[in-house]
Each structure stands twice: as structure tokens, then as C-alpha cells.
Amino acid sequence: MNLHEYQAKELFRQFGVAVPRGIKATSPKEAVDAAKELGGSIWVVKAQVHAGGRGKAGGVKLARSLQEVEDIAGQLLGSRLATKQTGPEGLPIHALLIEEGLNIVNELYLSVLVDRSSKRIAFVGSSEGGMDIEEVAESTPEKILTVTVDPTAGFQAYEARQMGFGMGLAKPQVDHLVKVMHGLYDMFVAKDASLVEINPLIVTGEGKLLALDAKVGLDDNALYRHKDLAEMRDSTQEDERENMAHEIGLNYVALDGNIGCMVNGAGLAMATMDMVKLHGGEPANFLDVGGGATAERVAKAFKLILSSDKVRAIFVNIFGGIVRCDLIAEGIIAAVKEVGLTIPVVVRLQGTNVEAGRKMLSESGMNIIAADDLTEAAKAAVAAAK
């Protein structure tokens, strides 16, 4: 789950990470009121969407008068912002962050993530802030610095000093970086984050370090421990079908193809999608109904797949280890009847009570193509979609 910038910065404040003064606004009037409260003669108006590259896409603008604040807010609110991360459809802008203007001397990059190769929390930093870190890594990889934290010892100040001097900071800024990284580490652990990114982390004219931007991703599997954070979810920033899946407890990712895939188990789902691609097809989704799939969940999964008008065929690939194949077959038949399905369905069942399940499908009198072999099933699904 991702947080908006204004939400992430509130977390930063709680853990002692300095951020610019800013106020959320959801109307042009609120934007002007926020600018008045902040004071000064220059403000930054930031669209709040779950995507990077906002500045290049016109979602971050400077305002040098209250009238400009109002005009920019009126232009952004209610519109959609398309960045290289959102695709051409963009994301809706329902809120803005109005921030004070600052004298920026230097821009740095800093992030915290889980480094799976070392099985530790890692800090990634660079003196090249304000740029796409992928571009920096490709063109000047020597400017990417990484520090991993020993989970037994926890974060140590020398690790921040190592990062700071490596980025070319003076001692006062290095001392401040120690506080920033310590706060970020504590927040990362306490809030079960999966990614924290500051791009840029700025050095002001007064020599202070401030998180000018803030990106926080949280581990969905740990949200039950953080009810307050779960309430921050902005469903308007997520795919509608993925939201539906979240509500009914299914793992779903929308894709661009025309073959809807329903599988139990993430590994089998990926293998199924690979087989579809191998034989010339394009998956319309990743959908894992879980090891404990029931007839009811299968019916909900069908409705979810069919919520996309791109789907021309459905490929069901179920291994009945925990769940019985005859129960899955029952769910498939019930779902086809309930939704009035007209497109072909290819079903491959293996596992417990597989023969009973196949018999139920063959005797259903519906447009269901049964297959025993995964390759055969994938080929059938691709042919049916055409």
C-alpha cells in the first residue's frame, strides 16, 4: 500500500525527519488559505498522486502569488496526471500539498528498502538527487552508495557517516544525516514499510537537511498491525479491479492481454502466464485465488476477470491439493450460470477428486473446454481468445 506525500511526511515528522512546512488542500480556496498560513512570497503546489515523475508531468508547480496558487489549484484539482509511471490514462488528483518555497543549495537521493540478497534493511544514497535513480545507476553507477544494517546491532551512526561523506557532505550535514537515517530506520521497522524514498533530500541555504519529497510503501501483509495506516489507503489511486480483489481477499493484478487467468497459487499463476505467452497469447491479469479456493471464491474470481471488457477467453488452472477439484468444478459451473458467460472457458484440473471434477464439467452442457495437460490447455486458451 502506498501513501501520499503529505501522509508520508506526517510519518517523517513523527520520527524526527525534518520536512518543509506544508498543508494539504482539496479546493482552490483551501490552497490559498494554506499559502496565507505558510506565509512568504513563493509556494510549491504539488499534486497528490501515487506516481513518480510528477514534476516533469506538470504536477509540481511554483506559485509566486496567491492568485497563482488559486489558478494552479483550480487547474490540477479534478484533473488526471499522466506520468511515465501511470501510463496515458493517468491518475486522478483529489488533493494538493501546498509547501513553503525554499532556498535549495544541493539535492541528494536517499532510500530505505529490504535487500533480499543480504536479507537486511539497506540504505541507498547518491549525491545525484532530483534525478531518476535508475538513470544515475546506469550512467554513473559509482555515485550509488549502499549501506546494509545488521539486524542484530540495529542502525549505527557510523553507517550514516559513511553514507554522508561518500555523498560529499560537510560535517554539519553529515551529523544531520545521522538523525535523518536513524529516524527513517526506526520508522521503516516500526511501520512495517517495504520502501521509503526521499528524492530529493535537500540541503538548504541555512545548511539544513529536509525531505523535499517523500514516498512510502507499506507491506500489505502487516497492515492488520497498523489500523491507522490502513485507513490512509486511497482507493482512487489504484486499479478498480485490484480494489475489488482486495475487498474480497483475492490477489489480482490487471494486465493488458485478452486471456483471463484464474489459478490457485502464485507460482502456478506465473507459470500459467508464461505458458500463455509462450504460445502466442497475452494474459489479461494475474489472479491467485489461494490454496483454499472455494466455490464462492471461484465465482467471485470469474466476476472479477469479466469486469475487463478486453477478456476474450478464460483459462482456469487449478491444482487441487488443499481444495478438491470437484468443488472447484462446482464453483466454475455456478459462476458461468450466474454471470451468463458467453466467452469460452478452458479448464485444467489436477489433484484431489480430479476425475469427479472433470466429469462435472463435461456434463455441464456449457462452453467449457477441459484439458489434462498444461501445454494443451494454454494452446486451447490462446486459440479460444482468437
UniProtKB/TrEMBL annotation:
<keyword id="KW-0479">Metal-binding</keyword>
<dbReference type="InterPro" id="IPR005811">
    <property type="entry name" value="SUCC_ACL_C"/>
</dbReference>
<feature type="binding site">
    <location>
        <position position="213"/>
    </location>
    <ligand>
        <name>Mg(2+)</name>
    </ligand>
</feature>
<feature type="domain" description="ATP-grasp">
    <location>
        <begin position="9"/>
        <end position="229"/>
    </location>
</feature>
<dbReference type="InterPro" id="IPR017866">
    <property type="entry name" value="Succ-CoA_synthase_bsu_CS"/>
</dbReference>
<comment type="pathway">
    <text>Carbohydrate metabolism; tricarboxylic acid cycle; succinate from succinyl-CoA (ligase route): step 1/1.</text>
</comment>
<dbReference type="InterPro" id="IPR011761">
    <property type="entry name" value="ATP-grasp"/>
</dbReference>
<dbReference type="GO" id="GO:0004776">
    <property type="term" value="F:succinate-CoA ligase (GDP-forming) activity"/>
</dbReference>
<dbReference type="Pfam" id="PF00549">
    <property type="entry name" value="Ligase_CoA"/>
</dbReference>
<dbReference type="GO" id="GO:0005829">
    <property type="term" value="C:cytosol"/>
</dbReference>
<feature type="binding site">
    <location>
        <begin position="53"/>
        <end position="55"/>
    </location>
    <ligand>
        <name>ATP</name>
    </ligand>
</feature>
<dbReference type="GO" id="GO:0004775">
    <property type="term" value="F:succinate-CoA ligase (ADP-forming) activity"/>
</dbReference>
<dbReference type="GO" id="GO:0042709">
    <property type="term" value="C:succinate-CoA ligase complex"/>
</dbReference>
<dbReference type="InterPro" id="IPR005809">
    <property type="entry name" value="Succ_CoA_ligase-like_bsu"/>
</dbReference>
<feature type="binding site">
    <location>
        <begin position="321"/>
        <end position="323"/>
    </location>
    <ligand>
        <name>substrate</name>
    </ligand>
</feature>
<protein>
    <recommendedName>
        <fullName>Succinate--CoA ligase [ADP-forming] subunit beta</fullName>
        <ecNumber>6.2.1.5</ecNumber>
    </recommendedName>
</protein>
<keyword id="KW-0067">ATP-binding</keyword>
<feature type="binding site">
    <location>
        <position position="99"/>
    </location>
    <ligand>
        <name>ATP</name>
    </ligand>
</feature>
<feature type="binding site">
    <location>
        <position position="264"/>
    </location>
    <ligand>
        <name>substrate</name>
    </ligand>
</feature>
<dbReference type="InterPro" id="IPR016102">
    <property type="entry name" value="Succinyl-CoA_synth-like"/>
</dbReference>
<dbReference type="InterPro" id="IPR013650">
    <property type="entry name" value="ATP-grasp_succ-CoA_synth-type"/>
</dbReference>
<comment type="subunit">
    <text>Heterotetramer of two alpha and two beta subunits.</text>
</comment>
<dbReference type="InterPro" id="IPR013815">
    <property type="entry name" value="ATP_grasp_subdomain_1"/>
</dbReference>
<feature type="binding site">
    <location>
        <position position="46"/>
    </location>
    <ligand>
        <name>ATP</name>
    </ligand>
</feature>
<dbReference type="GO" id="GO:0006099">
    <property type="term" value="P:tricarboxylic acid cycle"/>
</dbReference>
<dbReference type="GO" id="GO:0006104">
    <property type="term" value="P:succinyl-CoA metabolic process"/>
</dbReference>
<feature type="binding site">
    <location>
        <position position="107"/>
    </location>
    <ligand>
        <name>ATP</name>
    </ligand>
</feature>
<feature type="binding site">
    <location>
        <position position="102"/>
    </location>
    <ligand>
        <name>ATP</name>
    </ligand>
</feature>
<keyword id="KW-0460">Magnesium</keyword>
<feature type="binding site">
    <location>
        <position position="199"/>
    </location>
    <ligand>
        <name>Mg(2+)</name>
    </ligand>
</feature>
<comment type="similarity">
    <text>Belongs to the succinate/malate CoA ligase beta subunit family.</text>
</comment>
<keyword id="KW-0816">Tricarboxylic acid cycle</keyword>
<keyword id="KW-0436">Ligase</keyword>
<dbReference type="GO" id="GO:0005524">
    <property type="term" value="F:ATP binding"/>
</dbReference>
<dbReference type="Pfam" id="PF08442">
    <property type="entry name" value="ATP-grasp_2"/>
</dbReference>
<comment type="function">
    <text>Succinyl-CoA synthetase functions in the citric acid cycle (TCA), coupling the hydrolysis of succinyl-CoA to the synthesis of either ATP or GTP and thus represents the only step of substrate-level phosphorylation in the TCA. The beta subunit provides nucleotide specificity of the enzyme and binds the substrate succinate, while the binding sites for coenzyme A and phosphate are found in the alpha subunit.</text>
</comment>
<keyword id="KW-0547">Nucleotide-binding</keyword>
<dbReference type="GO" id="GO:0000287">
    <property type="term" value="F:magnesium ion binding"/>
</dbReference>
